[in-house]
Automatic annotation (TrEMBL):
GO terms for biological process: proteolysis. This is Uncharacterized protein. SUPFAM superfamilies: EGF/Laminin, Growth factor receptor domain, Trypsin-like serine proteases. It holds the Pfam family EGF_CA. One of its GO terms (cellular component) is extracellular region. The keyword Coiled coil does not apply. Gene3D superfamilies: Laminin, Trypsin-like serine proteases. SMART domains: EGF, EGF_CA, Tryp_SPc. The chain crosses the membrane at residues 121-147. One of its GO terms (molecular function) is calcium ion binding. Keywords: Disulfide bond, EGF-like domain, Glycoprotein, Membrane, Repeat, Secreted, Signal, Transmembrane, Transmembrane helix. The lineage of its organism: Eukaryota, Metazoa, Spiralia, Gnathifera, Rotifera. Residues 222-259, 266-302, 308-349 form the EGF-like domain.
Length: 710
């Protein structure tokens, strides 16, 4: 075929195009050959495609010559009936003899083309041939295998004790198998016996049987003899074992041998005298019980124990005047209340402590007897009984005191000259120590910050608030000088109240590095009371009386303040002094509250010692109690949570605040009768120093009053 466009080409089905061998024909868009659509062609491909696909007109085809390969497609026929050179225009006709046309083109040249095509793609024909041969071989092999096995199949169903035996390719039979011989252990541990029905059977020994449900002779199961009624004697229990059983005594019984055999007899547990505590033992068949003695009730958690019954809590057994019920172990007593005792007629009568106790009160107090108690009243010109919390800030009130003009003597037994020399020596030593501390101030900044005391407090006149006390470290334990630790409040002639963490030895050792320690922790402290100027070189401090701790009691539920984020809880302690304090204008005690007396927005006064120009002077600071929903969240945030026995307070003046060195200081409240009461004890400061947590003293008043001595 010649290159170009061939018009007037009729399309015929079932015909083939015969090339002269020089052209590569690719027929891709014939609508009658959809399987060839989309054939990809390289740059040497010959494209033969209709320019129009409308069957009402003759399609026009085009191609590119120059290729040797020949492609023939069914349903895409071109036939040359003219016999002319195929490169010339030719006409296709359905009447053409295809075989004759093919002969025309069978020339040596065409044969050469065909041979080159075959030689180029010979490996494809080889692979196809091998695939066909392998498939045939596998099919033949499977057929032979199936035929042989089908011939060997035998359609016999043998019993479980029989085996199918093939006699030849077409015959088979069932033969009996003696499993007792082929599998000797099949019934272990029982004997195997031959059985024509099942092939074998297991011979069960005593205590075993074949399963009663299906009577399987090839199995032996244990017989549970304990299911047999009354198989054991009275007071015995049956214990099943593998192939047998045994009888044992019930709990509370013991096995004994009698003429009739072994019997179970009751054990008398009451022979052991320690069976029941606070009760007596009652023996029962196979057991025992405890009966409680009068005054005791059974312990629901320990049935062999009887606990004391508190008669005082259940009924009013003591009806006498001034009588109280005192519970005892298993009983109770009606005793006279404190301050009363029984007379000859058995009545509880008041004790006049002022007559019977020569030292009921200090020398500057007047003893006033009361029912069941007594009061130590300040000696006033009007004989008014003022027990505590006297308002010394009221100038007119001070004139009422009969001892107001008394001066405390210098508390030393040295002659006057030696006393002056001693004071001068102490002053000289303290001044030298003070100058040394100034030179090395940077080395002690951490300790100073840790114990920061009241900032920007208001001055306190000398003689006011004489119950304020200071807890110092004795000079022999801290660099040869006393050191301020905490504040406290004097509440009687013997007792002071402070924060429990001030007396927490573990907490104390973390805060202070002492040069040496005494044998008892309480001996570290030097207590000064009513001193206005606590500066170490002041005459007032040097002349003040030093007190020691006899003992102290922290609240039993006190939780240590291990860190700034610790919860304030039960942070209160009571100190007892080694000697009694005589009441004076410089040493007087504060009142304890009688009820819950701290309410929201109450103004409280905190008196402590502040650092002012290197002087430690008594100062005061007003704080406001906060106990309302609006301020509760802020208090919790500032103080990292506080317990139920504490309240939150904030400084009235934004520029003033308390420091950690003010721990133990009393927050006092002035009552309507002009008496100062101890409302709170300073426990910790908040994130912003204006906030403080105070232990509410009124919530611990019963515990404190039980320990306070007159």
């Amino acid at each position: 075929m010649s290159a170009g466009i061939y018009p007037n080409r009729q399309h015929f089905d079932n015909l083939s195009y015969i090339s002269d061998g020089r052209d590569r024909i690719s027929y891709v868009n014939d609508p009658c050959a959809p399987s060839l659509h989309g054939v990809a062609l390289d740059r040497n491909s010959v494209v033969l495609r209709p320019s129009e696909l409308n069957r009402d007109r003759n399609p026009i085809y085009s191609y590119r010559s120059g290729q040797e390969n020949i492609y023939g497609y069914n349903n895409a026929a071109f036939s040359d009936i003219s016999g002319a050179d195929s490169r010339n225009p030719s006409v296709r006709s359905p009447r053409t003899d295809l075989y004759a046309l093919q002969k025309v083109f069978e020339t040596p040249k065409n044969k050469g083309k065909a041979s080159r095509i075959c030689s180029k793609y010979w490996y494809i024909f080889v692979i196809l041939t091998l695939i066909i041969l392998v498939a045939l071989g596998v099919g033949i092999g499977l057929g032979v295998f199936y035929a042989k096995n089908k011939a060997k199949q035998c359609h016999l169903s043998c019993a479980p004790h029989e085996q199918l035996i093939h006699l030849n390719s077409t015959h088979c039979e069932c033969q009996y198998i003696d499993k007792c011989e082929t599998e000797p252990e099949i019934c272990h541990p029982f004997a195997c016996i031959t059985n024509n029905e099942t092939g074998y059977a297991c011979q069960c020994t005593a205590g075993f049987q074949h399963p009663p449900i299906n009577n399987d002779l090839t199995q032996c199961h244990d017989i549970n003899e304990c299911e047999i009624p009354n198989i054991c004697s009275e007071n015995q229990i049956c214990n099943n074992t593998d192939g047998s059983y045994f009888c044992s005594c019930k709990p509370g019984y013991e096995s004994i041998s009698t003429s009739n055999g072994t019997e179970c007899r009751d054990i008398d547990e009451c022979l052991n005298g320690s069976r029941c505590s606070n009760g007596y033992c009652v023996n029962n068949n196979g057991s025992f019980s405890c009966k409680c003695l009068p005054g005791f009730i059974p312990d629901i958690f320990h049935p062999w124990h009887c606990e004391d019954f508190d008669e005082c809590s259940s009924s009013n057994n003591c009806t006498g005047i001034n009588e109280i019920c005192n519970n005892t172990l298993g009983s109770y007593q009606c005793i006279c209340a404190q301050g009363y005792r029984r007379d000859a007629n058995g009545h509880c009568m008041n004790i006049n402590e002022c007559e019977e106790l020569s030292a009921a009160c200090d020398t500057n107090s007047r003893c006033e007897d009361r029912n069941g108690s007594f009061a130590c009243c300040m000696k006033t010109i009007t004989n008014e009984c003022i027990e505590c919390g006297y308002d010394y800030s009221n100038a007119s009130s001070v004139g009422m005191l009969s001892f107001a003009s008394l001066k405390l003597p210098v508390t030393t037994k040295l002659p006057r000259m030696m006393t002056s020399l001693a004071i001068a020596n102490i002053r000289s030593r303290l001044n030298a120590k003070k100058n040394s501390m100034k030179k090395n101030q940077s080395k002690h900044v951490g300790n100073h910050v840790r114990r920061t005391r009241m900032i920007d407090g208001q001055p306190v006149a000398a003689g006011h608030f004489p119950w304020v006390a200071a807890l110092l470290i004795r000079h022999e334990y801290y660099n040869s000088e006393p050191r301020y630790v905490c504040a406290a409040s004097l509440v009687s002639s013997w007792n002071l109240i402070t924060a429990a963490h001030c007396l927490d030895e573990t907490h104390f050792r973390k805060e202070w590095n002492l040069t040496t320690y005494p044998s008892s922790f309480k001996d570290i402290f030097d207590i000064r009371i009513g001193v206005h100027n606590l500066s170490l070189n002041s005459t007032e401090f040097l002349n003040s009386q030093s007190y020691s701790i006899a003992n102290f009691t922290s609240h039993k539920d006190y939780e240590p303040l291990d860190s700034e984020h610790a919860v304030v809880k039960n942070d209160v302690a009571l100190i007892k002094l080694t000697k009694r304090i005589e009441r004076s204008v410089n040493n007087d005690w504060l009142c304890l509250p009688t009820k819950v007396n701290v309410y929201d927005q109450d103004i409280l006064k905190v008196v402590s010692y502040s650092n002012t120009e290197d002087q430690s002077i008594k100062q005061q600071l007003n704080v406001r109690a906060l106990d309302n929903p609006q301020t509760q969240n802020e208090c919790q945030r500032q103080l990292n949570n506080i317990a139920e026995d504490a309240f939150c307070a904030i400084s009235v003046n934004d520029s003033s605040f308390l420091g950690l060195g003010d721990s133990g200081a009393g927050a006092t409240l002035l009552t309507t009768n002009h008496r100062w009461q101890l409302a709170g004890v300073m426990s910790k400061t908040g994130v912003q120093k204006a906030y403080s947590a105070m232990t509410n003293v009124s919530m611990h008043i019963d515990w404190l009053q039980s320990l306070v001595e007159r």
